[in-house]
């Protein structure tokens, strides 16, 4: 009979769980009995992870050398205002074995690579090796598109123009003799940058003819590394590293890795000399330059923060659950009685 | 048709406007010529060429105009303009932040979603238009010289159309001929007004005489009529024939588009209005658009968002200025010059940056919120629509949401204004009792029978629930209609078939027959009256046999027979027979038309004609049906039993004879084919049908009605045919209707009038007290008045029946003027009205009837539940005060335990004084009560039983006033005074403190004024519910208008936002759907604000680390699509499906509704709390990655992408905390969101190494997914970000759960446990609800201090005498005597009422403080104690009245028959003051 009626009545709504809003549902209720154990459990897990992270981070060795030369005592002080080529060197000692592979970074502070207009000031197509953009770079690069003679600049834009151009060499003093520590400049940039994003036109100098080097650069792009074809032009590793903009105003960028010869297992204890070809001006923005030697763990460089954060959050969960237990006991049980 | 009706809306309006512009010079009338004489091809000569064709086009757009028009419409929305502005800003190189094309994406997306929606709707309209335009109809073609098939759209004004049975009318057509011998055409107007009964339409009078077939070629008349308008019930015009004769045209001549031709084989008409100018199309209003309260609140917060946006942008811009300033002249290498190579000035770069920041932070103003809200609302409407519980099987109708965007308002209602008739009651009229010639016939058996139906209803439900449908089914299948069983079987079967389920079934079987439930049809006659009817008719028969004049009949007896004749013929009931429901019973004896011309009158009223009695001509064709009708009546078992009883008890000899005379009659006619003989009455209003059925019970049955004659079957006399001279239809101003007939027995011209007692009693001819007859008349008059009062007190609808005989001269005089009135065009209504007034005077009172309007199912329960939900219910009715009060008691609107303040005033001043007094009374009574500490403590215990008063306190909007257990009854006249500017504040002050308000005798305008007053002054959300045309204004004024799609037409439904089949569905609509819609939407909006603010502030924090340069570490694509795609779906699902409390609990615990009333889900502070939470969460989401990556070689997007991911997780988990019910759809949507983000990111990061400047995050996510740090961040950040909120929610859920949370906990219990818990006393419930009430009661002591000492002085002098001196009509009705100190103030004060402003009235009733459960809970206290002594200890500050009360149980038990007179005598009050 019900069926018959349904046929007769055309307006009858469908009687399904969905239309009647009776879908089976899980209704979590935030009550103490669920919340307290859950918080305890989460807290314990977080503390565990936090401890592990903290220990990992503590094992990482780090050597930082500021070579800005603000201090008149500093060996690089003379280079601060010098516009000519200037070299200075710093010595430092490593007390224990610096476990390898050691990463050699240069660091800048107060440098806003993340500035919006600065970051936008490049031409991806040009860097991709597209010759159309050699003669006619994108307006994104303005005003670093053409030089005063209206010649197109390659690579254009402020980002490339301001490329970091200090260079470093590291030597180990072994028995009073300076032994150059070989620095490995391969593979410091992203694989995708090196292989996909940036490309050189096949024949370097020919295609770069009719273009100008960026105004701040001492040499054109195709002479960045004349020794290695695969490290020259747009795919120069240092160039790639620089072009990958840092997220924060205090940053470091990978310069080299120490992976060769005697130093593959790390830097042995001893005295080292860092020689710096000091070119890059930072005093205009009160920046600092530094060199950082560090080894890395599975979670990256030295950073205690995450471990501490995990421990703190875990502890907070535990504390909260205890607080809730107390409050719950005071109110709820009293009421039940 | 119906569908296109909904959609027409604006298109039509604009079209009409255009039309008006085109022809400004056209005069007020429309002239229609027949197209026949103008070849259709030559349009220029056709005088009808200007009129709209019948092609309808309800679409808004064409293919070409869609884009510009739609965009133009969309840009009316401010938000859209804003977003387009932002997108365009991106094209300005100096300020752009994103790839310009990309910035267009959100706007284009939003616009296109809306455009697609519009396009789809328009396409649907187009399809339905096309379908309608291509329907066929028969149009006369000149070439073919016959009717040819044409499409509707080809129809033009002036065409002749042939209509066939069951055809839908294509246009508004003037009826010219009909195959019906009575020159009638029956139409069904259900699509227009929802009335299912047949309407008769007449052909134009001048074509009556046309005996041969109508030939369109010969038609040469010109029709002049009014311009197209939307009044369905009006059509005026005249037809001018070639000979210059003019004939008036009425609405009876017009067939309206959309109606269906029934019972008429063929009709021909000429098109008068076509297409968009038809009345049906002009009546179509599109769906209504209202702003809901929630949306208004939201808009405020959107402006706050805009404000925050500006502040943030300004902050960043200034920061950038400072950042640049610090470098001075030394330009750092990373500071880029302007594109021109020049150095930007500081100010300029600040301004540019400000604009850039607006682009970056644009998401703070939730672009997708508006679209999301629309989507969610559509889903909500769909769900409400689909609810089985809101589907009424009986009428096969479901709830209709006509307004699509105010669903959430349903959850915030505070006041309900309800109509009574048809809304609270069924509008199914059941004849209960009557008075004839001053003698009351109580119809006890009838009352018992009606009572039985009610019992059976409940029985039946149980019966059905046990699944035992077999026997009933059997009884149904063996007979075609339930009535048959009723006739031939025992009482048992009578009961069974008479049950409602059967009625339901029957009504489904014959859907288009209204008013046919057995309860209405079977009237058990009162034995005494039956005797008298028999006696009188046998006498009449005798007299006729002996050719005596009828006037010799004793007046008592003649009154009886006249009474029944009046009941039978003074109506517009159409007779049909049931097995062919739409076939009129042929009862024609001779072709005669009503008197239409004066000559006709003279001709017809010549003596020769007068002698021929029409009754003698009963034909055999009629015989059968009439006998059946009679026999079916008499075989009713209840009748039988009554008769037997009667025989035993008191039967005089003559009566016995009378009985024996006709009892064989029904013995010899066994109901062999009873269903054939059953006549069915179709009436325009149900009480008409009720009266006809009642008369039939006395064997005065209506057997046929034609426009010019009515046939009545009377006992002994057989069929009498009354020549129907005029019908003066019912209208609400006259409140009566009359028929003018020629009485076949006396040959007198008789006027039968039926109408509201208040009107008729004034029109009764003042009895000549000189003679005995006059005295008797006076006595009858007084008695009838008494009985009328009694009926009203019983909640019956009363109607008076009166008659008047006219001499031929009088009639002739009247007729002449009446005919004049009929033929005028201008002001015809007024003239006809006056004409009716002239006729309906000096009436002779016959009697009165009491018809019961039964309450709808579940009305008392619904009202009780709604009230528990904190809704104030006002009933505004046009009924008499007594009737209204009684219905109010019956539906538990008024409680016998309540005190009732009745306000009846005769003048403005009286009203003012009355209001003042009532105010003081309330003030003194309730404030004093609360000051008694002992009472307070006692009451505070009791208060826990009553959740209602407590929670109503928390409704802080109306916190000044508390709702007492008081009822207010006010009549229409007093209401008119009270609504005056000077008094309205006082009136409101009283009304708002009463629990229920009943306004009687209120006009539609007053209804809307009351609603408007409450809405505007109290700033509350109002809902008006009604079913009739008189409720339309009120429905339109209220925030939410609800129409009952009942039997009284569709006007209310057309005006409403929601249309319900039954009043009781209001409960679920409000408590469940309203609550859900509100809480879902409120939560969704808040969540939206949070979500956008959270994302934006993450970017904001970054500005501190990028030199305030407007750089974003979140890739532009993520930033733009985050809201649109990645986080959009879960919130839509939650916004659509989330249920904070299950529907069972919501209905069982109506208190939960109050969260919506108090806007608890979305209070202004909550917006700010969410903002603060968003700030906090964004801080966490920003700084954890910041510190985790500090001093590393991380690049911008390798660092920014984890932040985006973290933000997404946080936002989704935040939603998870706020989601109360998790269905698989919630899980799916969240999973989908996450999957979508990662898929999109993977694809995006792999797609193009050189595109997407300036961000270009090629291969970032791929590398990140290999980085453990990424996962570590994703684990800890959302955890820390959500910890506070989660902790807060957990504490709240555990320690001080809100009522909603308690309800949710209830949901978790197994269903039987829950039922137990809910079934337990409220006390238990309270403990379950947690400590909430305890907190509330903290502020209680404040209450006592609010009473001003000054005012208490006044209260001491009793008021009683003052009132009497002034001679006002004051009733302060007190059900118990426990309120002695009422309305006591000094005469001095009442003598010169102060001017009252709102402020003042607020002062006169000092706010009792936000919480004092003790006050409101005082009646339960009284209820439980027989006698209470409230003695206030004389402490210095309190000068309050204390008094001794005694409440006697007897006063309360049951509702007494005359509650209106329960004024407590002054003696019973024993006030004594103690100082």
TrEMBL record, chain A:
Magnesium keyword on record: no
Chief subcellular location: membrane
Location in or out of the cell: Membrane
Keywords: Membrane, Transmembrane, Transmembrane helix
One Pfam match: CDC50
Transmembrane segments: 29-55, 308-331
Stored InterPro entries: CDC50/LEM3_fam
Superkingdom per UniProt: Eukaryota
Keyword field contains RNA-binding: no
Record's GO cellular component terms: endoplasmic reticulum; Golgi apparatus; plasma membrane
GO annotation terms (biological process): phospholipid translocation
Database matches in PANTHER family: CELL CYCLE CONTROL PROTEIN 50 (PTHR10926), CELL CYCLE CONTROL PROTEIN 50B (PTHR10926:SF19)
Similarity comment: Belongs to the CDC50/LEM3 family.
Protein name per its UniProtKB record: Cell cycle control protein
UniProtKB/TrEMBL annotation, chain B:
The P-type ATPase C-terminal domain, residue ranges: 1053-1298
InterPro entries: ATPase_P-typ_cyto_dom_N, ATPase_P-typ_P_site, ATPase_P-typ_TM_dom_sf, ATPase_P-typ_transduc_dom_A_sf, HAD-like_sf, HAD_sf, P-type_ATPase_IV, P-type_ATPase_N
Biased composition (Low complexity): 1375-1387
Top EC class, one word: translocase
Binding site for Mg(2+): 419, 421, 1027, 1031
Region (Disordered): 1-34, 465-505, 609-643, 664-683, 1339-1419
Protein name: Phospholipid-transporting ATPase
Membrane topology summary: Multi-pass membrane protein
Assigned keywords, A-Z: ATP-binding, Endoplasmic reticulum, Magnesium, Membrane, Metal-binding, Nucleotide-binding, Translocase, Transmembrane, Transmembrane helix
GO cellular component terms given for this protein: endoplasmic reticulum membrane; phospholipid-translocating ATPase complex; plasma membrane
Pfam (any one): PhoLip_ATPase_C
Compositionally biased tracts (Basic and acidic residues): 666-683
Organism: Poecilia latipinna (sailfin molly)
Residues in P-type ATPase N-terminal domain copies: 44-101
Cofactor names: Mg(2+)
Residues passing through the membrane, by range: 78-96, 102-120, 300-325, 345-371, 1167-1190, 1196-1217, 1224-1244, 1269-1288
UniProt binding sites for ATP: 419-421, 688, 730, 754, 797, 877-879, 1001, 1007, 1030-1031
PROSITE patterns in the cross-refs: ATPASE_E1_E2
Principal place of residence: endoplasmic reticulum
Composition skew (Polar residues), residue ranges: 1342-1360
Reactions listed under catalytic activity: ATP + H2O + phospholipidSide 1 = ADP + phosphate + phospholipidSide 2; a beta-D-glucosyl-(1<->1')-N-acylsphing-4-enine(out) + ATP + H2O = a beta-D-glucosyl-(1<->1')-N-acylsphing-4-enine(in) + ADP + phosphate + H(+)
Localization annotation: Endoplasmic reticulum membrane; Membrane
Family that this chain belongs to: Belongs to the cation transport ATPase (P-type) (TC 3.A.3) family. Type IV subfamily.
GO biological processes: phospholipid translocation
Active site residues per record: 419
């Amino acid at each position: 009979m019900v069926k018959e009626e349904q046929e007769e009545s055309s307006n009858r709504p469908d009687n399904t769980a969905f239309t009647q809003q009776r879908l089976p549902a899980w209704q979590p209720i935030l009550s103490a009995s669920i919340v307290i154990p859950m918080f305890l459990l989460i807290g314990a897990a977080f503390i565990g992870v936090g401890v592990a992270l903290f220990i990992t981070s503590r094992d990482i060795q780090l050597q930082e050398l500021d070579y800005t030369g603000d201090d008149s005592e500093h060996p690089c002080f003379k280079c601060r205002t010098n516009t000519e080529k200037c070299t200075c060197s710093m010595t430092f000692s490593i007390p224990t074995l610096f476990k390898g592979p050691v990463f050699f970074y240069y660091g800048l502070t107060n440098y806003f690579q993340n500035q919006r207009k600065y970051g936008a000031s490049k031409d991806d197509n040009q860097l991709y090796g597209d010759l159309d953009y050699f003669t006619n770079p994108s307006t994104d690069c303005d005003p670093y598109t053409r030089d005063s003679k209206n010649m197109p600049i390659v690579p254009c834009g402020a980002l490339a123009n301001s490329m970091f151009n200090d260079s470093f060499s590291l030597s180990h003093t072994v028995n009073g003799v300076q032994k150059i520590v070989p620095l490995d400049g391969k593979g410091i940039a992203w694989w995708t940058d090196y292989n996909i994003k940036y490309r050189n036109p096949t024949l370097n100098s020919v295609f770069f003819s009719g273009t100008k080097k960026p105004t701040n650069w001492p040499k054109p792009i195709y002479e960045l590394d004349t020794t290695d074809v695969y490290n020259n032009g747009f795919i120069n590793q240092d160039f790639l590293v620089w072009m990958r903009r840092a997220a924060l105003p205090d940053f470091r960028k990978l310069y080299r890795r120490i992976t060769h010869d005697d130093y593959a297992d790390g830097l042995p204890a001893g005295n080292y000399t860092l020689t710096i070809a000091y070119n890059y001006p930072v005093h205009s923005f009160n920046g600092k330059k530094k060199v950082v030697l560090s080894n890395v763990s599975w979670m990256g460089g030295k950073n205690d923060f995450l471990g501490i954060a995990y421990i703190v959050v875990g502890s907070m969960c535990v504390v909260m659950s205890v607080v809730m237990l107390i409050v719950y006991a005071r109110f709820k049980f009293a009421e039940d009685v | 048709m119906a569908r296109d009706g909904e959609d027409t809306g604006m298109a039509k309006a604009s079209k009409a406007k255009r039309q008006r512009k085109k022809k400004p010079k056209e005069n007020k009338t429309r002239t229609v010529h027949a197209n026949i004489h103008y070849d259709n091809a030559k349009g220029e000569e056709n005088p009808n060429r200007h009129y709209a064709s019948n092609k309808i086009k309800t679409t808004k757009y064409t293919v070409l105009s869609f884009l510009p028009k739609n965009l133009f419409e969309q840009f009316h929305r401010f938000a859209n303009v804003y977003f387009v502005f932002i997108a365009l800003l991106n094209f300005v190189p100096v300020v752009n932040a994103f790839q310009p094309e990309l910035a267009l994406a959100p706007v284009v997306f939003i616009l296109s979603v809306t455009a697609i929606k519009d396009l789809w709707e328009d396409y649907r309209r187009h399809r339905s238009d096309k379908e309608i335009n291509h329907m066929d109809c028969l149009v006369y073609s000149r070439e073919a010289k016959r009717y040819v098939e044409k499409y509707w759209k080809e129809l033009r004004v002036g065409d002749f159309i042939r209509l066939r049975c069951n055809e839908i009318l294509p246009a508004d057509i003037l009826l010219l001929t009909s195959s019906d011998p009575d020159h009638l055409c029956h139409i069904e107007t259900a699509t227009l007004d929802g009335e299912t009964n047949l309407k008769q339409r007449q052909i134009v009078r001048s074509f009556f005489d046309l005996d041969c077939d109508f030939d369109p070629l010969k038609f040469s008349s010109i029709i002049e009529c009014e311009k197209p308008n939307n009044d369905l019930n009006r059509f005026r015009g005249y037809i001018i024939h070639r000979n210059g004769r003019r004939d008036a045209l009425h609405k009876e001549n017009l067939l309206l588009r959309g109606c269906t031709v029934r019972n008429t084989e063929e009709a021909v008409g000429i098109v008068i209005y076509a297409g968009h100018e038809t009345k049906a199309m002009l009546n179509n209003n599109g769906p209504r658009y209202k702003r809901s309260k929630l949306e208004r609140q939201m808009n405020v917060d959107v402006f706050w968002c805009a404000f925050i946006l500006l502040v943030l942008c300004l902050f960043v811009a200034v920061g950038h200025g400072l950042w640049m300033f610090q470098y001075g002249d030394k330009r750092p290498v990373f500071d880029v010059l302007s594109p021109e190579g020049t150095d930007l000035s500081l100010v300029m770069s600040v301004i540019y940056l400000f604009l850039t920041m607006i682009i970056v932070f644009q998401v703070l103003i939730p672009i997708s919120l508006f679209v999301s809200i629309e989507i969610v609302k559509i889903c909500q409407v769909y769900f409400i629509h689909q609810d089985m519980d809101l589907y009424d099987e009986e009428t096969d109708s479901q709830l209709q949401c006509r307004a699509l965007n105010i669903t959430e308002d349903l959850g915030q209602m505070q006041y309900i204004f309800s109509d009574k008739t048809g809304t609270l009651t069924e509008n199914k009229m059941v004849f209960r009792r009557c008075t004839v010639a001053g003698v009351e016939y109580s119809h006890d058996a009838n009352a018992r029978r009606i009572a039985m139906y009610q019992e059976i209803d409940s029985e039946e439900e149980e019966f059905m629930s046990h699944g035992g449908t077999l026997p009933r089914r059997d009884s149904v299948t063996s007979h075609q209609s339930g009535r048959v069983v009723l006739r031939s079987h025992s009482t048992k079967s009578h009961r069974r078939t008479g049950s409602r389920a059967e009625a339901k079934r029957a009504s489904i079987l014959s859907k288009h027959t209204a008013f046919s439930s057995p309860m209405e049809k079977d009237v058990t006659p009162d034995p005494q009256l039956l005797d008298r009817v028999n006696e009188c008719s046998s006498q009449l028969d005798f007299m006729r046999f002996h050719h005596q004049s009828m006037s010799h009949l004793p007046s008592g007896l003649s009154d009886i027979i006249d009474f029944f004749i009046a009941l039978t013929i003074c109506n517009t009931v159409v007779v049909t027979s049931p097995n062919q429901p739409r076939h009129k019973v042929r009862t024609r004896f001779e072709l005669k038309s009503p008197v239409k011309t004066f000559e006709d009158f003279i001709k017809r009223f010549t003596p020769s004609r007068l002698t021929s009695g029409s009754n003698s001509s009963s034909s055999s064709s009629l015989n059968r049906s009439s006998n059946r009708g009679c026999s079916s009546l008499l075989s009713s078992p209840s009748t039988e039993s009554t008769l037997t009883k009667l025989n035993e008890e008191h039967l005089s000899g003559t009566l016995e004879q009378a009985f024996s005379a006709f009892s064989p009659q029904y013995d010899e006619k066994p109901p062999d084919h009873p269903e054939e003989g059953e006549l069915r009455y179709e009436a325009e209003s149900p009480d008409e049908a009720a009266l006809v059925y009642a008369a039939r019970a006395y064997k005065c049955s209506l057997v046929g009605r034609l426009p010019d004659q009515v046939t009545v079957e009377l006992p002994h006399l057989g069929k009498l045919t009354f020549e129907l001279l005029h019908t003066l239809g019912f209208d609400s101003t006259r409140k009566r209707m009359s028929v003018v007939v020629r009485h076949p027995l006396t040959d007198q011209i008789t006027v039968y009038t039926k109408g509201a007692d208040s009107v008729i009693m004034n029109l009764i001819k003042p009895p000549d007290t000189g003679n005995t007859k006059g005295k008797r008349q006076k006595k009858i008059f007084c008695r009838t008045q008494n009985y009328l009062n009694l009926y009203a007190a019983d909640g019956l609808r009363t109607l008076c029946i009166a008659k008047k005989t006219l001499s031929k001269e009088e009639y002739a005089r009247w007729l002449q003027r009446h005919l004049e009135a009929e033929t005028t065009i201008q002001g015809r209504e007024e003239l006809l009205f006056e004409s009716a007034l002239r006729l309906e005077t000096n009436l002779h009172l016959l009697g009165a009837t009491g018809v019961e309007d039964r309450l709808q199912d579940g009305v008392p329960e619904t009202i009780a539940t709604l009230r528990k939900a904190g809704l104030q219910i006002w009933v505004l009715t046009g009924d008499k005060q007594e009737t209204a009060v009684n219905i109010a008691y019956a539906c538990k609107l008024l409680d016998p335990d309540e005190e009732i303040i009745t306000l009846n005033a005769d003048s403005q001043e009286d009203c003012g004084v009355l209001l003042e007094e009532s105010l003081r009374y309330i003030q003194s009574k309730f404030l004093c009560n609360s000051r008694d500490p002992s009472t307070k403590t006692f009451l505070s215990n009791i208060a826990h039983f009553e959740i209602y008063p407590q929670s109503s306190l928390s409704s802080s909007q109306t916190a000044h006033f508390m709702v007492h257990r008081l009822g207010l009854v006010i009549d229409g006249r007093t209401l008119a005074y009270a609504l005056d500017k000077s008094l309205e504040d006082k009136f409101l002050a009283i009304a708002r403190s009463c629990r229920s308000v009943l306004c009687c005798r209120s006009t539609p305008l007053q209804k809307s004024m009351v609603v408007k007053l409450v809405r505007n002054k109290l700033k509350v959300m109002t809902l008006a519910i009604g079913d009739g045309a008189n409720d339309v204004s009120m429905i339109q004024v209220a925030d939410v208008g609800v129409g009952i799609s009942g039997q009284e037409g569709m006007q209310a439904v057309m005006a409403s936002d929601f249309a319900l089949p039954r009043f009781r569905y209001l409960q679920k609509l409000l408590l469940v759907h309203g609550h859900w819609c509100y809480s879902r939407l409120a939560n969704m909006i808040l969540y939206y604000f949070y979500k956008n603010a959270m994302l934006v502030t993450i970017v904001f924090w970054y500005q501190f680390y990028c030199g305030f340069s407007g750089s974003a570490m979140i890739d532009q694509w993520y930033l733009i699509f985050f809201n649109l795609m990645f986080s959009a779906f879960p919130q839509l699902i939650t916004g659509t499906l989330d249920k904070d409390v299950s529907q069972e609990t919501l209905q069982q615990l109506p208190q939960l509704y109050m969260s919506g009333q108090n806007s608890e889900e979305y209070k202004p502070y909550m917006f700010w709390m969410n903002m603060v939470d968003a700030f906090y969460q964004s801080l966490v989401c920003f700084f954890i990655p910041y510190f985790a990556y500090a001093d590393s070689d991380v690049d911008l997007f390798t660092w920014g992408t984890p932040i985006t991911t973290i933000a997404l997780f946080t936002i989704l988990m935040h939603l998870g905390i706020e989601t109360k019910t998790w269905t698989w759809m919630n899980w799916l949507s969240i999973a989908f969101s996450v999957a979508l983000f990662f898929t999109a990111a993977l694809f995006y990061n792999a797609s193009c190494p050189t595109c997407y400047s300036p961000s270009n995050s090629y291969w970032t996510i791929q590398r990140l997914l290999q980085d453990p740090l990424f996962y570590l961040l994703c684990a800890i950040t959302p955890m820390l970000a959500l910890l506070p909120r989660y902790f807060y929610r957990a504490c709240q859920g555990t320690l001080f759960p809100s009522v909603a949370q308690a309800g949710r906990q209830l949901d978790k219990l197994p269903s039987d446990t829950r039922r137990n818990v809910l079934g337990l006393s409220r006390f238990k419930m309270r403990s379950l609800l947690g400590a909430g009430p305890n907190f509330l009661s903290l502020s209680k002591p404040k209450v006592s201090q609010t009473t001003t000492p000054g005012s208490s002085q006044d209260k001491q002098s009793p008021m009683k005498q003052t009132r009497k001196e002034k001679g006002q009509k004051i009733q302060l009705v007190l059900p118990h005597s426990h309120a002695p100190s009422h309305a006591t103030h000094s005469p001095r004060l009442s003598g010169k009422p102060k001017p009252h402003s709102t402020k003042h009235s607020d002062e006169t009733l000092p706010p009792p403080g936000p919480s004092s459960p003790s006050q409101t809970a005082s009646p339960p206290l009284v209820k439980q104690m027989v006698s209470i002594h409230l003695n206030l200890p004389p402490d210095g500050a309190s000068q309050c009245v204390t008094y001794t009360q005694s409440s006697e149980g007897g006063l309360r038990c049951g509702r007494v028959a005359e509650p209106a007179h329960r004024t407590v005598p002054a003696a019973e009050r024993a006030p004594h003051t103690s100082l």
